[in-house]
Amino acid sequence: MIDVTHQINAVRRKVGTRVLEAGEARTVTVSRTYDAPVEDVWDACTNPERIPRWLMPVSGELRPGGRYQLHGNAGGKVERCDPPTSFAATWEYGGEVSWIEVRLAPDAEGGTRLVLEHIAHVDDVRWAEFGPGAVGIGWDQMLLGLDAHLSSGAGMTPQEAEAWGASEEGRRFVALSSQRWCEANIAAGADEAAARAAAARTTAFYTDVPES
Description:
CATH architecture: 2-Layer Sandwich
CATH topology: Alpha-D-Glucose-1,6-Bisphosphate, Chain A, domain 4
Low-confidence stretches: none
Radius of gyration: 17 Å
Mean pLDDT: 93
Order of helices and strands: HEEHHEEEEEEHHHHH
Number of helices: 8
Strand content: 25-35%
Shape: globular
CATH superfamily: START domain
Number of strands: 8
Structural class: alpha+beta
Helix content: 40-55%
CATH class: Alpha Beta
Distance between the termini: 29 Å
């Protein structure tokens, strides 16, 4: 059993913007603290033997300039790597390119604070339709998987993760995640009614439940 409410409350979510050379981009940021030292969290996030235990199989060269591929998901290029505190990479999926930055820092109690920022050019129409939850829910699921791995050393296979996502518990996790991303969107200045409508569409997409 997973304490869904605890896992949702453990994450901080932020929606914002960043100016890149190609123009203004949207950002979603997730952060949470893990009861593990920085070196262990870094190894879990960068070791190709451990990544499949909480995320999915990965291939390629996990080094600056190398390319990686998460099987069945995104791939990209490692642009920067500063062990054990940060790395940055492109996130290429569906013919589109965005960027991720991961930062690790020790907290006062011996744990590790992980911050992940996803930067993407998203057109206004698509943003209005689904909002930040379209990618934010996936990152919440990633943080959940990492917590399970760091806590137990084990993890879920992609098949087990998919089955859990279809369960009542997994669907509740998605619904709560979508709700929190809606709140972050409103806090960032989005129109409340539009943000809630976008969140409802995103929840329906992830849970395959038609909108009421």
